[in-house]
Amino acid sequence: MRRTPRRIRSRRARRPFAAFLTALGLLGGLLLASPRADTGGTEPVAETSNSATVFYSTKTKNWPTTYLHYAPTGGSWTTVPGVRMEAACTDWVKQTVDLGSAAGLQATFNNGSGVWDNNGGANYALGTGSIAVKDGTVAHTDPCTTTGGSGNAATVYYYTGTVGWAAYNLHYAPTGGAWTTAPGVGMEPACTDWVKKTVDLGTATTWQATFNNGNGVWDNNNGANYLLKSGISTVRNKTVTASATDPCAAAPPDTEAPTAPAGVRASVTDTSVVLSWNASSDNTGVTGYQVTRTGGTQATVVADTTSTVRTDTGLDAHTAYTYVVRARDAAGNVSAASAAVTATTGDAPVTKAGQPLGGDPRKDPIYFVLTARFYDGDSSNDRGGSQHVKSGNAANNDPMFRGDFKGLVEKLDYVKGLGFSAIWITPVVLNRSDYDYHGYHGYDFYKVDPRLESAGASYQDLINAAHAKGMKIYQDVVYNHSSRWGAKGLFTPTVYGLRDSQWSWYYDQKQDGFAYDGLTVEPVSGKSYYNGDLWSTAEPSGNTCVNWGKPTGGKSAEGYTVYNCQWPSPTSGMFPKTYYHQCWIGNWEGEDSRSCWLHEDLADFNTESTPVQNYLIGAYNKYIDMGVDGFRIDTAVHIPRSTWNRRFLPAIYNEVTAKFGAAKAQDFFVFGEVAAFVNDKWNRGSVNHSAQFYTWKERKEYSADDAAAAIEQYDYEEQLGTGNQPTSNNAFLNGNTYHTPDHSRFSGMNIIDMRMHMNFGDASNAYNNGRDSDDSTNDATYNVVYVDSHDYGPNKSTTRYAGGTDAWAENMSLMWTFRGIPTLYYGSETEFQAGKQIDCGPTCPLATTGRAYYGAHLEGSVTASGFGTVASASGAVATTLAQPLAKHVQRLNQIRRAVPALQLGQYSTEGISGDMAFKRRYTDTASGVDSFALVAVTNAATYKGIPNGTYTDAVTGDVRVVGDGTLSVAAPGKGNLRVYVLNGPGRIGSAGPYLK
């Protein structure tokens, strides 16, 4: 789980797209007040219009005619092909439409002969006023506007590189003259990072100017306005240069087209075609590609993409389609067409989803990644959000949403080459908060976050690609809470704070018809993190929030008036009790920790409510149906065990069974985060807050009402106390004998081994603490074991583990041979960000934290020849794989995979002397498997009373023949170990930095 800081105050700039006004956000971290000159200190607001003039760039289309096919918001579409657009200026056509009372329109464009630009099937969502559409991007501007006259001329260039608005307006007054009507006149593109405007000053030789985005965000030189002269002036980062040279003059016009895309290839699955190609080159840089498809019943289709992969789905069955690809640059130059490639579709699919791989999850070591911070396969879905500048990420060119599914698909062989056969990924549902890259602020639980997906690299594509390599996907899921914006499709609040002149910088102007998805830019505000659906200028109809709009008496950090309902609260009436709990947690070991809010950014679901249960069950059934292999459950301890056992866990296994059968349901792996950050067996004496407690079914019947049952169950178990909890021998051998485990009382939820995690400052401490809890866990051989994670290091440290390479190697040697499933947080194989603060929200750059972007370590190519083996690697990733801990974990995975006792076995320390020494055995008569291993980590050990026979060390190949039931092992050294296997396979793998 990850929380964001409270009450974020400042909006921040995004990176601009080259050579066109598609940049997002606000001026580099400044709170921009309105111009002084003609507004009396109040913020000008762009005038409302019931018409829209739509400009469309024709430079890269080469259409003989262009038609606008549109529908006002809430209205009907025009008759196909729409209305013919008229010439506007060079490379632009336009059409003005009457919207009536609508606040915007949806639009598509076509050539009148069946070739369409419909924004990749999403249509264009446009506002009012002047709107320009160019190569799939939208700006709130008039690209053809010029200002002339007979007086003194002045031209001002405004630098956009650190601002990032969607549109730029110049609001000005000649000295002695009147100001323009706010927001002023639209500025036009000049060159990369610059816009300009030429104005007529009449007889004046000086003038004042301010700049704005047309939607209430201003740069007025910190209230002083900019004082300019006639001639050419530049304004860059609040610095005025008079009598300046044209900042764009030095750059000669770009007339060189990119090279034609090469290596175009197509693969067919049912009626879907995945098209990919090699990146083109250009003298200034390729900005995108045009894919033209012919064939089938859908005529010719031209699509724009910034990726080198595009997926076509829903095509006609048994039909040949031909594709050509062209590259374009920022100047609009288009390459020659690629060589054509033809693909013929097959049968229409019965289902697009895969199915879980199945197999015992204990066989699969887990690699845990924050998807958005792992590897960036597609930069077009990168997003910095409202905290891009404040966090320091902008200065590092490191948007919070950077890695994606495409990047993970591209680096699956890296993970496989390390030896991992399961990947735990952070939540995939659409998130919403000021800093939501981690995924724990779910907003639309039924929608995959578009900032993680790409053409040809959807979530389904990731699941299928992993399965094709024999790797499982474990999806992180959150049942406990939504974002502070609520949960779309269940309940979203509409009464967030009063939008007065002070708060208009934070709350966007409401735009009916626009739906937040984290990726799409809202055309009027120019932001992908638009929040205009959650503000009000007057008390909304049906408001339930107490004292809405009344000042609290407090002030924000900026000195603004804070109103009631300005921020989410469980006690204000803002969130109805049908869907959300109504209290703050007061006692973290009390019943309220399972029925109250953790934080204002994490609106706590009323999980005992049927509508909430149905919403969450329906959402997660969708991902089960896609074929995921298991769920990691976030904040599991904050939902009553009775609710898990009655509702959510049965729903999971019932859906897997219904979709894929009982065998796959048995192997579907569910493991919960029961965050008991203590070093003892029971969390401060509370059984209800201890991890092992959640592995058991209920022992009695409770009230039919889930809310009442939760309290009854809590009280009953607390009264019984720690001495009256169920016990199990499922993890333990009977002497040297494996026995069939009894899972009849298993709840269905396995656990993260919090006790070992807390004690991993020292491997021996983790080992002895961990096994002390195993008798109260239903089956500890399924425990997920890690040293550190995206939340904490050992002993609840806020920094990534920094015990040193030898200690890391020792920890790994223990995890890969002791009971449980070894799990590694991304980058630990190189001690990535060791000692760095794991999370500091937007108060420091992500690059300085434990959640830094890992992609630089993965550049280059890698091909895995098996789990734990690499056929080839080049570039930075080859260097990464050569690191000592990477080599160490590769061989540990090879050994563990070859010895069933290390994967599935029960263990015992009976008859054994020596710390971190144990024996493990797994027996399956049906398959003829009987695997018995003696393990010594770091220290010397002696094993007595063991079966006689020939033992071979999997590390060194040393052979011992035991005839008297005793075997002694000399200390192998820190990080090293010995694994003597009865009738074993011999030495496994090659000597490395530790295993030798």
Automatic annotation (TrEMBL):
SMART domains noted in UniProt: Aamy, CBM_25, FN3
CDD domains, per the entry: AmyAc_bac_CMD_like_2, FN3
Signal peptide from the UniProt entry: 1-33
Keyword Signal tagged: yes
Positions of transmembrane segments: none
Fibronectin type-III domain: residues covered: 257-348
Keywords noted in UniProt: Carbohydrate metabolism, Glycosidase, Hydrolase, Metal-binding, Polysaccharide degradation, Signal
Cofactor(s) needed: Ca(2+)
Keyword Repeat among record annotations: no
Name of the protein: Carbohydrate binding domain-containing protein
Organism listed in the record: Streptomyces noboritoensis
